[in-house]
Each structure stands twice: as C-alpha cells, then as structure tokens.
Amino acid sequence: MSRTQSKMKSHYDVKSQHRVFAPGQKVLLFLPVQGNPLASKFSGPYVISHKVTDLNYVVHTPDRRKNCQLVHINQIKPYFERQLEEDQNTTFVNDERPVNILNKVSVDRVHHEVEDSCVAERVYIPSPRGNPSNSHILSNFNEYLSEWHHTVLRQQTNKVMADSKLNIGDVKKDFSNPEIVKRYVQYRPSPPSSIVSSVLHFHRQQQQQEHGVKDIKGEGDSSLCVDVGCGSGQNTQLYADHFKHVVGVDVSLDQLDAARVRNTRTNVSYRQGRGEDLPLEDESVDLITCCSSLHWFNIPAFFNEVKRVMKPGGVLACYWYRLPECHYGSHSFNDVIEEVWESWREYWPPCHQFIMKDDIQLPHLYPDQVTVRLSERKFVLEREGYLDDFLGFLHSTAVFQNLELDKGTQEAQHSLDELRQRLVSKMGRGNEADKVMLKYYYALRMWRKPSH
Ligand SMILES: C[S@@+](CC[C@H](N)C(=O)[O-])C[C@H]1O[C@@H](n2cnc3c(N)ncnc32)[C@H](O)[C@@H]1O
C-alpha cells in the first residue's frame, strides 16, 4: 500500500515545484469575486505578511473584509511589476544589493558610539516633505542627510529582517509592532537570579584560573557583555554589576527604544544589529547572552558570528522558558492552559517547537559546554500576579499574534476571554481578583570558547 502511495505521489509530483514566498513580496490571490461569492479570480497585488507553515501564508488584504487573511499556497501566485513601474519606483526597499546596516566598532568605542546613535534616533521625526527645491535641500543639507539616513536605515532593517526570514525558512514575528513592544514591556519576565549566577559562575571559572580574579569588572578594564535579541532589555541590565560595558543588540529599533527608556544603568547601552551579523569587533566580547531569543536567529550563522567576536575563554549563554505555569493555591491551571495552547498549534511558528521541546539538537559550537534541560526544573522564576498577567503574557506571544492576524482582533480576544472564564470558574466564584502564582521554568545552554 505505502509503495503504491509513494509511486502515485512521485507520479503526481512530476511537474510540481517547491514554492516559497517572502514577507513583503507582492502576490496575486485566488479569491472570491466581491459581490459574486460563487466566482473566484486572481486579484491583487497583495503583500505577504509572513509564512505560517509551508502551505499557508498570512497576506495583507486591506481592500477585503478581513485586513489580513490566511491563504493556502495554491491560491497564491507571484506578482511581477511592469518594467516601467520598476524604473519609476527605484527605492531602497527594492534594492537587492546586500546591505551592511552597521559598521563594526571597536570595544573601546562601543559605549560612546551607542550613546551617539541613541541621540540620533530620538531626534528622528519622519515628515512628508512634498517636493522641496534643490536650493532648499542644499541649504538644509545636514538635516536632510540625517533624515534620509534614518529613513533608509529603517527601510533597510525591514528588508534585512525580511531576508533573514527567507534565509532560515522560518516565520518571524513582527517584534516592532508598537502593541507587541508594549506587551513585552508589561508582561515579559526578567530571568531568575539563579540563572545569572550560574552563567557568571561558568564564565568566571576560566577567568579565575587565568587571572585569579572573582569578577572581571575593575578599573581600566574593557570587559564586555553583549545581550543579543535583547528586546526591551529585561535581561541586559542584570549584567551591569559584573562587566565594564553591557551592550544590548536587537534587530528591532522599536524594541531598542523601549529598552533605552527603561535603562537605569550608565554602563548599559543599546545598539541595532542582527545576531547573524553582529556590530562588534573580532575577539572583543567576554560573555554573550541570549534570553529567549536564540530560536529567532539563523543559528549556524549566529554561531559563526559568536566564534568571530568571542574572546578566547569567553562564554555564550542561551536560556529560554516555555509557557509559564499558573497556580491558584493548590490548584494548577496547567491542564486547561495546555489544552488551549495545543488548540492553537496551527499558529505556532516553526521556531516555536524549539522552546517547547526538552531535547534540542543544536549545531556544534565548542566542546566545553553545559546543558540544563527544561525537564530538570532547576531554574524557575516565580512571580505573583493576577489572571490578567498570565493572559497578558499569552497576548504577547507570536502564537497569539498569528491567531489575531488570521481570525481578527475580536475573535482572538474572544478566545482569551473564554480561557479567562474557564480559569475563573476553576478559582471559584468571587475569587477572580485573588492573586495567582506564575512559574516560568528555564532551560540553559552554555559554551566556552577554548583559551588558545
Ligand atoms: C522573544 S524576544 C526576547 C526579548 C528579551 N531578550 C526577553 O528576554 O524578553 C526576541 C527578540 O529577538 C529579536 N530578534 C529576532 N531576530 C533577531 C535577529 N536575527 N537578530 C537580532 N535580534 C533578533 C526580536 O526583535 C526580539 O526583540
């Protein structure tokens, strides 16, 4: 039977082609004709938002009833601009040349340059200018130059993100959506101090052997810790007491803006960059951390960058948590939560499997390594809060973002309300304003670069 099935499959697949669409790509969609739902035709162009699975894409359809919809690959075909339009629309977004969005900088200059870039970003106000005269442009050249620089930087960043989505054949979340940034700031936890201690302990083992010191921070030292995929900075600041400089790197300018607003430490700064192309000099970093971010990177490309920028003896520490557990007194809500999470499986981005699994296979980096699995339940962050804190966390996930895109905000919100009702009924009438306990269990992977 299976032989016949595979023979039939190869027979039918003879003319089939593997098709992939990139976020931002223009396409035509085979959709019902408006006003005549029994007829369908290709219309558009529409723009791909992101891939959900190999067979399904979320596409922006602003002129339809749903602003965004989930579309099967068989209903999609590429849209080709006419040559004339291409010539007229020569913008940087369409520019296919590889872009290096940041210069590599030396460690001693990191802090200073980061501060400069913060100032520049804060003064950037996009303004439609119409068609200014040449003389007006020349007399305000510096202002135009800086505005152009930032507009292009944002456009190029979007392009770079879109490219990286393509490279890893994975779905990316829109981390720059202001609503998501807000949810991150409000609902994403900082890792437990036990993880930070383990990382510092592993890092110091080598330093102690080599230099006989406890902490490497000291007068005149240039120790550098870099937090890659820092988001709004929950993890970054935790290393400020232990290194001369701590730099948070993230691809999203909006996440970085939120991190800078929250920053209370003078030796912590933030700069834009990709894990796959770090804005850092060769052999310049003592410790690299990735808190809940590794799964969003192209991991082989990131590991290559780690090898390049890490000082001999330096450490890469990656940690992440699964969905938090939620408890009310002796009652656990985990069965209900797991059931709902499972029912959203079609919205899990492929990289999400990473954080749900206990046994993750990663490419080889260095032989000196440490693994602590989720199932060991060694690192836990316990946070007292309310039901809405737990629901707010769910709201901040890529899974919920995909659900919203597919079903629309109202229907997605309705799913959360239903979950809330189920949890409230478990708490018992009148108890819904009581506190609950959220438990985030963490996994940890660390690698040390050989000294020589
Ligand atoms: C799940 S968030 C984690 C944020 C933060 N570290 C935390 O603990 O909550 C992942 C972050 O990685 C960033 N990111 C995704 N892909 C990236 C890449 N290729 N390079 C750098 N940052 C990236 C996103 O912008 C986002 O801020």
From TrEMBL:
Stretches assigned to the Integrase p58-like C-terminal domain: 44-78
Domain spans labelled Methyltransferase type: 226-318
Keywords linked to the UniProt accession: Methyltransferase, Transferase
KW Transferase (keyword) present: yes
GO annotation terms (biological process): methylation
GO-annotated molecular function: S-adenosylmethionine-dependent methyltransferase activity
InterPro entries given in the database record: Diverse_substrate_MTase (IPR051052), Integrase_p58-like_C (IPR054465), Methyltransf_11 (IPR013216), SAM-dependent_MTases_sf (IPR029063)
Top-level taxon of origin: Eukaryota
Membrane among keywords: no
PANTHER family xrefs: METHYLTRANSF_11 DOMAIN-CONTAINING PROTEIN (PTHR44942), METHYLTRANSFERASE TYPE 11 DOMAIN-CONTAINING PROTEIN (PTHR44942:SF4)
Family: Belongs to the methyltransferase superfamily.
UniProt-recorded name of the protein: Methyltransferase type 11 domain-containing protein
Organism listed in the record: Petrolisthes cinctipes
